[in-house]
Amino acid sequence: MRTRFPPSPTGFLHVGALRTALYNYLIAKQAQGTFLLRIEDTDQERSVPGAVENILRSLDAAGIPPDEGVVLRDGRVAQEGSKGPYFQSERLPLYRRYADELLEKGHAYRCFCTLDRLGEMRKAQEARKRAPMYDRRCLELLEEEFQSKLTAKTPHVIRMKVPHERIIRFEDDIRGTLTFQAHTVDDQVLLKSDGFPTYHLAHVVDDHLMDIDLVLRGEEWLSSLPKHLLLFEFLEWKPPRYAHVPLLLNKDKTKLSKRQNSVAVEEYLAKGFLPEALLNFLALLGWNPGTTQELFSLQDLIEQFSLERVQKSGAFFDLEKLHWLQGQWMRRIPLLDFAARIRPIVEEKFSKAKDDDRFEEKAELIQERIAFFHEAPAMLSFFYEEPTITIELLVNEKQKVTRELIVPIMKLLMEILSEIPREDWKYQQIRDHLGRYHLQAPMKETAKKLELAFSENTALTVSKLQPCPYSKGQVLWVLRSSLTGLQFSPGAYEVAEVLGKEETLRRLDRSSALASA
Ligand code: GLU
After folding, report:
1. Pairing mode of beta strands 68-73, 76-80
2. Is residue 324 part of a domain?
3. Same domain, 293 and 438
């Protein structure tokens, strides 16, 4: 199975193009086949310097580099494979040869019409509410007229001659049976006056000569399919299979556009989206697995992707889904990799982190809480610098921590926590010890059995057998915010453990001084 991805080098890699590339990649890989990349640079005016490299880098970063054709080797653009060259601009004699063959067989003709004439023709057609189509004037040129134009080297194009009486039927791998009335098909320009082919001729020639089995491309090409099928027929070649994938849509059902969304793959990667999340997201734009599974690694996709489950209608580009997948994939990175990925950015911000031999422990605390690597320094800040504590932070309406309660809760916390022996200063012990002051429903039974003093709705201090008048939420909020200075942060027990007993009590003391001031 040979599939291809043939971008035009007009700039960055579009997310829609990455999805097309991905589907092609998957189909090749599930058959141990080849995923080929060709550069369609026949529109010289639209070619942008650096675009080829940029596209290849994005594919590499996404994890789906091509096997053949234009590839990146040692960071440079190279061509690999026996069916090259893989830049269309290096294949001009080939297109000329097949255009000549079409002329000879009577399936194409030269057209000398000027742009002005074509413009007027189109205007007249529009005025009559007709679809714009070449009126075949040059097909009716008298022999001498034709010869004199040719000897005078009048600039001209080569057009295909569409047999209007034909009805063209085809099975598309996604859309099923398609029927086209040839009389609605324009006599497409195949070779421009500058000797460059149009997409229509070039891709047919290339897909044939490069032994492509399946052309999977965007739906915008569907209406041109009859032209392509006719060209295969005229050249007496077997056409490949075709599959037209649905458009990506903005929320308002318009075609995905820069105005409403970022569309460049590099932008998503620069923002910190994981390639895994991006590919997972794009795979599901138009394809559904038929199960409730939502997380797909590239390997899962290779195993499960199928064209039968690609939808015909447009697919909504739902950024919320992408963010959700990003969170899921962040959590799946093995801890040591995760720590290694965030370490340089944390060190850049806090040089203290450089000789932190407990970095992994800290990384573990935030892995589930950040969606992007670049959020790590802020999330870990309190480990490397004194947190900024304010009354506004300590007071918490939702947890019912009022200003008056802050100091008494802190005092109690300090009292309780200092009871824990230093060698027991571990998450579990801290939690259990604090927990004893806040009996939860299931524990009430045990407490009763132990005949401990007990009061409904409140907790109690085991050591002194006195009820604790504060809820768990109140106590934990005061502890966590005093230790981290953050609204959102890892949990109180974990942070206390990593900070150590001394530092925990010091921070509580410091906050309490601030609160009583
Ligand atoms: N060069 C075309 C494009 O970038 C390729 C379309 C195709 O896949 O055949 O849209």
Report:
1. antiparallel
2. no
3. no
